[in-house]
Write a structure and sequence with these properties.
Elements (H helix, E strand, L loop, with lengths): L2 H4 L5 H7 L13 E2 L1 H11 L5 H5 L2 E2 L1
Antiparallel strand pairs: 1-2
Length: 60
């Protein structure tokens, strides 16, 4: 039997250490985007969008 099968892993310490104020993401920057169109462009290009390309989809 593998050692991994017998050892219980507790991830609550890791989560509680890094998420002290219950947020799992950083502060929002106030920018809003057209996400569906951005995802379509991402799929067409086959790579992440650059900052300049993402600005095309920003809602002003």
């Amino acid at each position: 039997m593998l050692t991994m099968d017998r050892k219980q892993v507790d991830f609550t310490h890791d989560i509680s250490y890094y998420a002290k104020d219950s947020r799992l993401t950083g502060e929002p920057d106030g920018k809003r985007y057209k996400w569906r169109e951005m995802i379509q462009r991402f799929r067409q290009l086959g790579r992440p969008l650059t900052d300049e390309e993402a600005e095309e989809f920003r809602i002003k």
